[in-house]
Protein: Trehalase family glycosidase
Amino acid sequence: MRPFATILIVAAAIIASSLAGARASAEPAGHRADAAMDYLDVLDLHGSPQAPTDRSFNIFFDAGAWHGYSLPPAGEAETGFSGPFVHSLANGQWVGARFAQLTLQGAASGKGIALSEIASHAAPGYLVRRFSGPGLTVSQTLFYADSWHALVRIELTAKTSQDVDLSVGGRAMSPQEANLAKVGDAVTQTFSHSNSMLRTRLHADGVSAYRITLSGSDYRIALNRPLHLESNQTVTVFVEQTLLYDAHAETPPPVDYATAWAGNRARWAGYLKSVASSNLAGLPDATARRVSVKAILTLLGNWRAARGDLHHDGVIPSYSNPDFNGFWAWDSWKHAAALAWFAPELARDQMRAMFDYQRADGMVPDCIFLRKADNNWRDSKPPMAVWAALEIHRATGDKAFLAEMYDKLVRYHRWWFTARDHDHNGVAEYGSTDGTEIAAKWESGMDNGVRFDAISMLKNGDGAWSMDQESADLNAYLYREKLDLAQVAAILGRTRDQAQWLKEAATMKAAIQARMFDKAGGYFFDVKLGSGDPVRVYGSEGWTPLWAGVATSDQARSVVRTMLDPRKFATVMPFPTLAADDPRFSPIKGYWRGPVWLDQALFGIEALRRFGYRRQADVMARRLVLNAKGLAQQAPMYENYDPLTGQGYQSPNFSWSAASYLLLLQKSRDRPGR
Structure:
């Protein structure tokens, strides 16, 4: 037998050779230095829809597009891509089964040229398929020029000089709903009860006319003359697919085919620069960086451009869930904080999108949609907007953005105390505008949290109701907002405001420490109005005061003892939203009654670091990465995780999980306790 060291060397050489081959097969001609090659197939993007609503596999979106695509299942003979999936139709649906299906014939012989797939990969910013045929190779690279235009860059390289007839085809998902038409040099697809339109074109330099044929749910666009291929030279043609959300009102800019690909690569090179700073003590840098790339892919895959009644770009929670085709306030603050470090303009727009709908009294709605009639005004979401704005400033130094947002942030902060402080004691409650318990629970972001099982609603005024309990997390967030507003005021030179915010923060700090820390339980709990009795539920809200810096060192020591108890929160995947020894603990189907939510887990890590428990924080952080099943492989990032097994549940491709992992793995950022 070979010595073990020799086996390792041989194995490493085989892996390196295999990876090099994958890189070569994935990279379009002329782009051998693309950094994206280090991160092939981070997510498996193969799939073919079996029904218009099929969300059983991952879909590729980029640049804010509302239409997405996938690689066909491995080994499928047809060229082209699955799609498109149009997210702005109803709650999202596949309108195409196949796009950019390539057909080649010898111009002289009239015989078809058979193509066999060599490779199929997803790289950051594009999908690529490579084929070989008699005497030639072909690559198809799908990428986005902007939020309207998806392009397939078809590159043909012949071993010997030859002429070929080239055409591309597509197939609508449903023959009954195809609605295909020829309009000039394009094929259009329209949709019932919608102003949206999908437009497909073929483009080749020097070609001004194309032959279009329609047959049921199929279409084909052909060059009107043979394409000449010189020996060992690459000829490029493009297929363009444009989605108009409102064909009556939108005029997208024309595509510059000569620069579109280079622009895409430059944009993605900018995103990937941030990955170099991903690090966690005791975790291989390669793992940290791959998880960070997956997080970036997830956030940008959920990026949607301003359309309809959404006036700025933003990030949806997850395209994999039909209920998540809008922007949510709490999600938006977390998305913005992470986006700030690699896509700062999108981070700014994510916040602007929500504040576009700020009410005169300061309230920001729970969620907003393409149709503003669908917006939810029954509640707001936990106040972390100032934190997110400061993250953008830390990442960019953009003082102008803080100046733009300051008055809006102040009004939102003040709204909590005018609309959600029933007894006017400076400590707030979650609530609703319609007096319903369900909307008040939504406002907490922890919809069915055990601590809310026995709430009642109290009226504060017209359209303003509170729960009958003050929440530890809400007031920790509000305390942190006062400190953050003081910092923003200082940056903007508003010294009087700064002093006032610091004064208010000191008053609130004393109230939280006195009212919400229970010495007997050694933990921060919600408290009932009137009696001041603690709601003794051990949940993730109990360490939010540590994250915010509102706890005393003695209080923190006690809370940390509970956090690091393996019977409660130091589980296989740590920091569930409810202690594991609670009889109501439900880690799989409990939603907010036991699963790990990554934002709360991140706050737990930062709480430990803030109070000096760095070693313990690193141990728990490594568990969050290594014990989340499939995270370092190809599994998507899930909405929440089973703390006992690390299995992901609920919505895959979940944006705030991605945002939380990015923030967790950034080593060069000025974060609490670092």
In short: Residues 4-258 form a domain with the Beta-galactosidase; Chain A, domain 5 fold (CATH 2.70.98.50).
